[in-house]
Write a structure and sequence with these properties.
Blueprint (H helix, E strand, L loop, with lengths): L16 E2 L6 H18 L5 H6 L6 H10 L6 E5 L5 H8 L3 E6 L2 H14 L4 E4 L5 H5 L4 E6 L10 H11 E12 L1 H4 L22 E4 L15 E4 L4 H10 L3 E8 L11 E3 L5 E3 L9 E7 L2
Parallel strand pairs: 2-3, 2-5, 3-4, 5-6
Antiparallel strand pairs: 1-7, 6-12, 7-8, 9-12, 10-11
Amino acid sequence: MVAANNFTCVRPAHRGTVSRVTDDYLALNRANWDERAPLHAASADYDLANFLADPNFIGSDLRFDLPLLGDVRGLRGVHLQCHIGTDTLGLARLGATMTGLDLSPGSLAQARALAEKTGAAIEFVESDVYAAETALGAARFDLVYSSVGTLCWLPDVARWARTVAALLRPGGRLFLRDGHPVLQSVDETHTDRLVIGYPYFETAEPVVFSDDTTYVATDTRLTATTTHEWNHGLGEIVQAVLDAGLTLTGLTEHRSVPWEALPGRMTYDASGEYRLTDQPERLPLSFTLQARKP
């Protein structure tokens, strides 16, 4: 099972290449996610049947977040890069008034359909993250939520942090959980050892992947196969948040991640997460960062 409710950076079986390709990364990535969206909505991995059957159901990613996320009742929240809206719906079920934002109209069509079928009053807005302030308005939100597999689609983490700060009201908070940048730098094609094969630090050039599959079980092959991705070091992420004027309130590194990032070397546990089977203390797999706007 792959517990992947958002823009999860699940890499193809072959390595990507650092490239100076000048194609529009937004158009390439949008086309890829437009094709993935209906496949994900139809997959059991996204648990849409449980969302429809049980009005209290929330996905495993969000359940993992709850001990650190805490009570969101009464908060006005925005879920950035919400994909097909399962965690957006989960946050609404926990009592927040939610807006979801995503660049993919195909993903938003699935998110709106899910909200309509479940009777959830959620606004979904089409926009890339960097245009979120224009699309949504400044200083409107008590909570900005972003979950696993999001930062890798953005070329400039400092610009992302400034956008988050612009969206938050004074006293509002950021909750980010994502794949750890050390994990994102590991070349998963080496199955006998951990090898750093991708950039750890942010680069101007993207890592370009070409793959016709997605991370759920399906016989359908994608035609929009090219994606552009970037890594961002943990220090770069923290500094970007601080430079944007936010106050860091928490930083936790986790030994688990919601997808099988290193195939054949991970064990799926009862919490819906994957861990290194052998010596899990060797590698941080994900992290949670929290911050507040003064």
